[in-house]
C-alpha cells in the first residue's frame, strides 16, 4: 500500500517511469482521489491555487470530451500517414494552445497573489516620490520644480559620473575583500612593484 | 449514499489538515528561514558544483531594457592542478574580454589598458555569487522549486528566488536537469515584469578544458592593481534602513570626478545585488534636484533629505531606493 503511495507521489512529481501506473490510478477510486489531493496540495504550496474553491474541473472536462467529435482525438496511426500529416499538427497545436492558455491563467493568479503580498508587506501607501510622475522610462528625466536654467546635459553629466563610479565600485568590491585578507595579495603585490605604469592606469579607471 | 458522504467529508478533512500543515510549514520557514526544501538545497549544490568543477563552453545572450541584446561567450575549465580558469568574451562591438585564472582576473577592454584584479569572480552579466555560493543568499531570499520545462533544447528545472522583504528584484533560474548549469536567468520585478534576461543558446560540457585555456600564459597577464586601503575619516551620515539580508560593506569619504567637495560613499550588498549610496551637502544647484532615471536594469535615484543630497544607484526597485534615501540620518 505504502509502495503504491510512493509511486503516486513520484508520478505527481513527473518522475514515474511506469506506464502501467496510470491505468492503476484510473481503476482505483481511492488512488484517483489521492492523485487529485496531491495536486491541490502542490498547487497551494506553489501559490497557484485559483481564488475560488471550485477547482475540480476534471468532471466537466470529461463531459466535454464525451461530447467531442471523434475526429479531434485521432489515433496514433493517423500521424503515420504521409498525406494527413500536414493536417494533424494543426489539431495538435490546438491542444498546445489550450495548454498554454491554462498555464497563462495559473501565472496570472500567481502574479496577483504576489502583488497582494507586495502591497501588504512592503508598500502600505501608494508610492509618491518626489520627481516621479507616472512610470519610469529608460531615458527621460522628470522633475518636480521647473527650473529652466539647468540643461538636460547637466543632469546627464552628473548621472553618468555617478553611474560610472557605481560600476567601478562594484568592479572593485570583491578585490576589496582580498585587500582586507592581505595574505592573499602578498605575492602579487611584490611582482607589481616592477610595473608602476599599471598603477597609473588605476587612476584612469573612472573614465 | 451516506457512505459516500462520509468518505467525502473524511477526504475533505484530510485535505484541510494537509493544507493547514503545509501552510504552517510555509509560515515557519518564511519567518525563521530555517526550514528549507531539501530539494532546493540539492539543486543549489548541484549548480554550484557544476559551475566551479565542470569544463564547459556556454553561449548566451544578455537582454536589458533600452539596449540591443548582447551575445557572450563564456568558457570554464579546471586544469590539472585543480585551478579554475574562466573566460568571458563580449562578442559584439569593440568587445571586452575577461580572463580569470584562480584568484586573478584580467580585464581587456577597448577604452583602457589591460589590468588585473585580485578577485574570485569575473564581474559581468552572470550573477556570480548566485551561481557559485547560492547558500550565502538563503538569509536574503526564499527559493522555491517551480517545476520542469524545456529551455535551449534541454530539460530544465525552474527555481524561483524572491527576496524575503520584497525589497529587491526576484530571480527565475532554469537549470539544466543533467548538469545543473544555468540555461536561463530572468530578473523580474515583483509584478512579474522582466528587468533583465540571460538566455543560454548553447551549452557544451566536455571532458577536458577547452584548448583555448592551454594557450593562456600566466606570465603575459597584466599585473594586479594594488588598491589603496581607505583611511579612516569621521563619517557624518548613516543609513538606517537596510533591506533584509544586506550588509554595509563599504563606507568611505571620497572625491568624485566632476564634483567639487567631498562626498560620503557607502555600499550595501547581499553578495548578489550591490547598492551604492552617495551623500553630500545639498546646494541650491538645480542639477542636483530630485531625479529618478533608469540605466539598463539599474536605477538612479536622488533626492534631498534635509541638508543632504542622497543618490542611490543599484539593481533595485525605485521603492527600495526611496526607502534607503529617506532613512539617511546624521551620525549621533
Question: Could you explain how this protein is built, in words?
Answer:
The complex is a heterodimer of chains A (207) and B (332). Chain A has 207 residues and is mainly α. Chain A contains nine helices and no strands. Helix content of chain A is 63%, strand content 0%. In chain A, α1 packs across α3 (29-45) and α2 crosses α3. Chain A is elongated and about 75 Å long. Chain A starts with a helix and ends with a helix. The relative contact order of chain A is 0.04. Chain B has an eleven-stranded antiparallel sheet, with helices on one face. In chain B, strands 13-14-15-18-17-16 form a six-stranded antiparallel sheet, with helices on one face. In chain B, strands 12-19 form a two-stranded antiparallel sheet. By secondary structure, chain B is α+β, with helices and mostly antiparallel strands. Chain B has helices at 2-32, 38-53, 128-132, 211-215, 318-326, and strands at 55-63, 70-78, 84-90, 96-101, 104-109, 112-118, 141-151, 154-163, 170-176, 182-188, 194-206, 237-239, 247-255, 262-269, 274-281, 291-295, 298-305, 308-314, 328-330. The interface between A and B is large, with 72 and 73 residues.
Annotate the secondary structure layout.
The complex is a heterodimer of chains A (207) and B (332).
Chain A: H1 2-12, H2 20-27, H3 29-45, H4 58-67, H5 76-80, H6 88-121, H7 152-180, H8 186-192, H9 196-204
Helix pairs in contact in A: 1-3, 2-3
Chain B: H1 2-32, H2 38-53, E1 55-63, E2 70-78, E3 84-90, E4 96-101, E5 104-109, E6 112-118, H3 128-132, E7 141-151, E8 154-163, E9 170-176, E10 182-188, E11 194-206, H4 211-215, E12 237-239, E13 247-255, E14 262-269, E15 274-281, E16 291-295, E17 298-305, E18 308-314, H5 318-326, E19 328-330
Antiparallel strand pairs in B: 1-2, 1-11, 2-3, 3-4, 4-5, 5-6, 7-8, 8-9, 9-10, 10-11, 12-19, 13-14, 14-15, 15-18, 16-17, 17-18
Amino acid at each position: 500500500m505504502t509502495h503504491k503511495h510512493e509511486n503516486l507521489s513520484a508520478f505527481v512529481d513527473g518522475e514515474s517511469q511506469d506506464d502501467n501506473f496510470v491505468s492503476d490510478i484510473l481503476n482505483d477510486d481511492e488512488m484517483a482521489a489521492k492523485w487529485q489531493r496531491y495536486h491541490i496540495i502542490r498547487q497551494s504550496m506553489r501559490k497557484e491555487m485559483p481564488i475560488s474553491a471550485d477547482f475540480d474541473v476534471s468532471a466537466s472536462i470529461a463531459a466535454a470530451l464525451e461530447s467531442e467529435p471523434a475526429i479531434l482525438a485521432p489515433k496514433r496511426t493517423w500521424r503515420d500517414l504521409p498525406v494527413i500529416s500536414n493536417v494533424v499538427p494543426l489539431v495538435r497545436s490546438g491542444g498546445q494552445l489550450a495548454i498554454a492558455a491554462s498555464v497563462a491563467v495559473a501565472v496570472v493568479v500567481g502574479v496577483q497573489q504576489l502583488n497582494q503580498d507586495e502591497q501588504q508587506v512592503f508598500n502600505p501607501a501608494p508610492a509618491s516620490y518626489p520627481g516621479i510622475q507616472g512610470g519610469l522610462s529608460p531615458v527621460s528625466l522628470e522633475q518636480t520644480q521647473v527650473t529652466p536654467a539647468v540643461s538636460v546635459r547637466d543632469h546627464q553629466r552628473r548621472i553618468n559620473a555617478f553611474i560610472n563610479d557605481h560600476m567601478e565600485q562594484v568592479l572593485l568590491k570583491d578585490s576589496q575583500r582580498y585587500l582586507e585578507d592581505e595574505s592573499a595579495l602578498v605575492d602579487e603585490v611584490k611582482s607589481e612593484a616592477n610595473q608602476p605604469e599599471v598603477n597609473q592606469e588605476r587612476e584612469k579607471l573612472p573614465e | 449514499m451516506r457512505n459516500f458522504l462520509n468518505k467525502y467529508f473524511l477526504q475533505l478533512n484530510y485535505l484541510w489538515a494537509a493544507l493547514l500543515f503545509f501552510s504552517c510549514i510555509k509560515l515557519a520557514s518564511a519567518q525563521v528561514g530555517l526550514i528549507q526544501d531539501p530539494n532546493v538545497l540539492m539543486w543549489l549544490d548541484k549548480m554550484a558544483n557544476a559551475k566551479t568543477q565542470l569544463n564547459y563552453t556556454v553561449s548566451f545572450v544578455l537582454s536589458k531594457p533600452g539596449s540591443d541584446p548582447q551575445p557572450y561567450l563564456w568558457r570554464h575549465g579546471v586544469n590539472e592542478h585543480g585551478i579554475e580558469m574562466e573566460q568571458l568574451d563580449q562578442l559584439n562591438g569593440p568587445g571586452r574580454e575577461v580572463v580569470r585564472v584562480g584568484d586573478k582576473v584580467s580585464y581587456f577592454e577597448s577604452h583602457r589598458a589591460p589590468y588585473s584584479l585580485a578577485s574570485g569572480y569575473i564581474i559581468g552579466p552572470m550573477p556570480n555569487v548566485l551561481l557559485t555560493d547560492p547558500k550565502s543568499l538563503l538569509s536574503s531570499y526564499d527559493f522555491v522549486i517551480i517545476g520542469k520545462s524545456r529551455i535551449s533544447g534541454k530539460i530544465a528545472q525552474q527555481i524561483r528566488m524572491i527576496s524575503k522583504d520584497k525589497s529587491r528584484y526576484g530571480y527565475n533560474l532554469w537549470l539544466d536537469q543533467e548538469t545543473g548549469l544555468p540555461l536561463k536567468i530572468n530578473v523580474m520585478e515583483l509584478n512579474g515584469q522582466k528587468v533583465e534576461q540571460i538566455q543560454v543558446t548553447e551549452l557544451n560540457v566536455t571532458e577536458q578544458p577547452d584548448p583555448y585555456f592551454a594557450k593562456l600564459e600566466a606570465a603575459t597577464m597584466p599585473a594586479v592593481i594594488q588598491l589603496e586601503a581607505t583611511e579612516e575619516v569621521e563619517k557624518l551620515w548613516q543609513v538606517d534602513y537596510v533591506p533584509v539580508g544586506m550588509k554595509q560593506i563599504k563606507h568611505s569619504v571620497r572625491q568624485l570626478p566632476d564634483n567639487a567637495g567631498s562626498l560620503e560613499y557607502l555600499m550595501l550588498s547581499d553578495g548578489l545585488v550591490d547598492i551604492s549610496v552617495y551623500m553630500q551637502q545639498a546646494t541650491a544647484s538645480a542639477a542636483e534636484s530630485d531625479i529618478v532615471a533608469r540605466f539598463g536594469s539599474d536605477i538612479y535615484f536622488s533626492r534631498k533629505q534635509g541638508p543632504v543630497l542622497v543618490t542611490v544607484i543599484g539593481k533595485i526597485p525605485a521603492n527600495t531606493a526611496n526607502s534607503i534615501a529617506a532613512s539617511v540620518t546624521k551620525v549621533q
